[in-house]
Design a protein that fits this description.
The protein is α/β, with parallel strands linked by helices. It is built from ten helices and nine strands. The longest helix is centred in the middle third of the chain and has 17 residues. The protein starts with a strand and ends in a 5-residue tail after the last helix.
Length: 295
């Protein structure tokens, strides 16, 4: 089983030089990829634009994003993703998300939270068909564009699209439509149950998900969390047992990754919730804590 660890960065408050420096340090410390999430209502760079810029400057770097599907023109989205993978030489990693259902994202995404699951169900098959280069009918507000064929196509064939989420409908959608699963804020025990459900649904749909295509996005800190941040995380997790899903300290982070590995999860995106000092120092400490787990 190949174990890979990517690093999540918010892209907020980083100058071009700092962002490039972060990614150079990431490569130097032998981490797998940089991940930039898409959150419309908060400060931060646009992930597809930023990843395209980084891919051109750092040819050894894999680039990943959790990208919004609701509220987008699927044909334009397919062309953007195909172009980025094509121009980066096949280095794009993707997890599709419906968008946060609270705060500014409740309205910024452009689709009500209650309708986003349906949008994912409708959009993902069309997006996958386009990215495979198949003639695809694309329906939109102005009518249907018939038999669209993308050119250029992604280098990766297929360009995999993973999904997140851990509620029952999200697990079922992953089993029916996704190439992999990357949840967040989930215990190893619940992750194991989710994986079991996804595999069951996939089998019912006459398909399977590669056993190595299960991972977790983990917010962590080497330092005690400020109380406002801890309170916000507990509210999001709907649990007072934050330590079970948000590790604080190098030992706790390693223990948690080993617990996920034990239940069949091998791909990780680690998101520093606090960075005291330089990114190079943060990644050096992270490499010492968990870098040897990569295979």
């Amino acid at each position: 089983m190949k174990v890979r660890i990517g690093i999540g960065a918010a892209g907020h408050g980083l100058s071009p030089a700092a962002l490039e420096g972060l990614c150079t340090s990431l490569v130097d410390h032998r981490f797998d990829s940089i991940w930039i999430s898409e959150v419309l209502s908060q400060p931060g760079v646009d992930p597809l634009v930023a990843l395209g810029w980084l891919a051109g400057r750092l040819p050894a770097l894999k680039i990943g994003t959790t990208f919004l599907v609701p509220g987008r023109n699927v044909l334009r989205l397919a062309r953007q993703l195909a172009t980025l993978d094509h121009l980066s030489g096949g280095r794009l990693l993707l997890t599709a998300v419906p968008g946060l259902p609270r705060g500014g994202e409740r309205t910024a995404v452009g689709v009500a939270p209650r309708d986003r699951g349906r949008v994912l169900d409708d959009t993902l098959p069309v997006l996958a068909s386009l990215l495979r280069g198949e003639p695809t009918d694309v329906e939109g507000p102005a009518g249907t564009t018939e038999r669209v064929v993308l050119d250029p196509l992604p280098v990766q064939s297929p360009l995999e699209i993973w999904l997140g989420g851990s509620i029952p409908s999200a697990l079922d959608r992953c089993g029916r439509l996704a190439d992999g699963w990357l949840p967040a804020m989930i215990t190893p025990a619940d992750a194991a149950l989710g994986k079991e459900r996804i595999d069951e649904i996939a089998a019912e749909a006459g398909r399977s998900i590669d056993p190595e295509h299960f991972g977790v996005s983990i917010g962590y800190s080497f330092h005690e969390l400020p109380e406002p941040m801890g309170a916000a995380l507990r509210e999001r997790a709907r649990s007072d047992d934050l330590d079970a899903i948000v590790p604080v300290g190098a030992g706790r982070l390693r223990d948690l990754l080993e617990a996920y590995l034990a239940v069949g999860f091998s791909k990780f995106v680690l998101r520093p919730l606090t960075v005291e000092g330089t990114w190079d120092a943060e990644l050096d400490a992270l490499e010492r804590a968990v870098g040897d787990l990569q295979t």
